[in-house]
Amino acid sequence: MNEIEVVLILTQTTAKIILTLTLTHADQKWVFLHCIIHQHVLCKSVLKINHVTDVVTKIISFIRARAMNHRQFVALLEEHETEHSDIGYHTAVRWLSLGKVLKRVWDLKAEIREFCERKGKDIPELSDEDWLADFAFAVDVTALMNELNTKLQGKGLFVHEMHSLVKAFMRKLQFLSSQLESNTLTDMQTLNEVTPSADHLSRHSSMLGALHGEFSRRFEDLRTIEDEMHMISSPFTCSVDNAPSDVQLELIDLQSDAVLAEHLKSGSLLDFYSSLEEENFPNLRRHAQKMLVLFGSTYICEQTFSMMKFTKSRYRSSLTDDHLSAVLRISTSDIQPDFDALV
C-alpha cells in the first residue's frame, strides 16, 4: 500500500467523522485540519521527477538484485575508499528514504558508472547532461523536503510551531525559485555541480513555484486559525483588535502584567497557560486549551511502536494486553509519578 492509498483511506474515515460531528452539533463552529505530514507527502506529486527516480531504482535493483553484483560493488567502493560503503533500497512508501537514496546514488555516480561499464550494463542517463541536471535538482529539492519532514516529526510540537515550519519552507521555495531565475545557485549545491543551462534553470524554477502553490493549497485550512494560533503562541505581542471579542479585555490585562510576561519567558507555553488563574482569564484559558490540544503526534506514535516492539518480545509471551497498555502509557508519558502518594 503506497502513501496516497493510505491517505485516501484516512481521508474517507475522517470524512465520516466530520459529517457526523457537523450533523449532531450543528450549532458549533468546527475547524477540521488535515494531517500535516500527509499533506506534505502529497505535495511531492507536483515534482515531475519520475524519469529520475525510475532510473535510480533501476540502477539500485541491478546492483542489489544479485548477491555477486552487490559484493563486487561493495568491493569497488572499498577500493576507491569512498565516503559511503554501500547503497540502499528506496522504500516506496517512505518519501524520506527517497531523498537519502538519491543523495547516495549522486555521491557514488562515478563508481556506479565504472561498475556498470565493467558489467556491460548500459545506463546512458549517467552520461546525459540534461538528465544529470534534473537528477541534481531532485537531490536538492528532496533534501529540502526531508529537512522539513524531520522537523515536523519532532518531539512536543504544537500546531503553531508546525505551521511556522511550513511557512518558512514555503518562503524558501519562493526564494530558491527567484534565485534560479537569476542564475544564482548558491543554495542549490548539487545543481551547481553540473552547471545547468538557462532552460533547465527556468524549468526548475517553475517546478519550485508549482510546489509552493501546492503547499499553499493543501495547507489553506491552517489559515482559518492563524490569528488564534498567533494569539496563543505570542499573547504579549499579538494585536488585541484581531483577537476574538471574548478575550480582548483579558488580553489587555495580560499584556499589562509584567510578572506574567517574565513567567512566560522562563517557562513553557503549556505551563504558562496552566498557571493562569481561571477566575481572571477564563476565556483565554479556554482558547489556549483548544489550540494546545492540536499537537504533532508522529513522535509519540513512533516512540510507542518502538517501545511496544521492545516490550512485547518472545521472552514475555504471557504479557497481557492490559499490562502492555499500562507499560506503553508509562514509558511514553512525560508526567512524573508521585511515588509518595502512590505508596
UniProtKB/TrEMBL annotation:
Residues 265-328 form the HAT C-terminal dimerisation domain. One of its GO terms (molecular function) is protein dimerization activity. InterPro entries: HATC_C_dom, RNaseH-like_sf. This is HAT C-terminal dimerisation domain-containing protein. It comes from Nothobranchius furzeri (Turquoise killifish).
